[in-house]
């Protein structure tokens, strides 16, 4: 399930930010959200992709991702 959510998140990043695939992957893999998504204890991978994406958007707006 995590892979499906990650794929959707990358697609959203490409569309919303107009970035390349490699840039979108870099953003996702370097985010706090990806760490949480990778942790089964959070249960984030059970949530809808669009819902999870809102957390990534917040992280991007707050400048947490370097």
Please count the helical segments.
4
Based on the structure, what is the oligomeric state of the protein chains?
single chain
- What is the percentage of strand-forming residues? under 5%
Query: On the 0-100 scale, what is the average pLDDT?
Result: 91
Shape, principal axes of CA atoms = globular
Helix proportion: 55-70%
Q: Would you identify the regions where 5 or more consecutive residues have pLDDT less than 50? A: none
Instruction: Return the string of H and E elements.
Output: HHHH
What Rg, in angstroms, do the CA atoms define?
Answer: 11 Å
- Let me know the largest β-sheet: none
What does this structure look like?
About 70% of the residues lie in helices and about 0% in strands. With about 70 residues, the chain is mostly helical. The chain has one domain. Helix 1 (about 1-15) crosses helix 2 (about 20-30) and helix 1 (about 1-15) packs across helix 4 (about 50-60). The termini are far apart. The model has no long low-confidence stretch (mean pLDDT about 90).
Keywords:
66 residues, mainly alpha
What's the arrangement of secondary structure elements?
Layout: H1 2-17, H2 21-29, H3 32-38, H4 49-61
């Amino acid at each position: 399930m995590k892979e499906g959510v990650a794929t959707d998140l990358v697609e959203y990043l490409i569309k919303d930010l107009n970035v390349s695939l490699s840039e979108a992957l870099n953003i996702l893999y370097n985010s706090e959200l990806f760490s949480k998504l990778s942790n089964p204890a959070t249960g984030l991978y059970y949530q809808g992709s669009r819902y999870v994406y809102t957390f990534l958007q917040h992280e991007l707006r707050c400048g947490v991702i370097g």
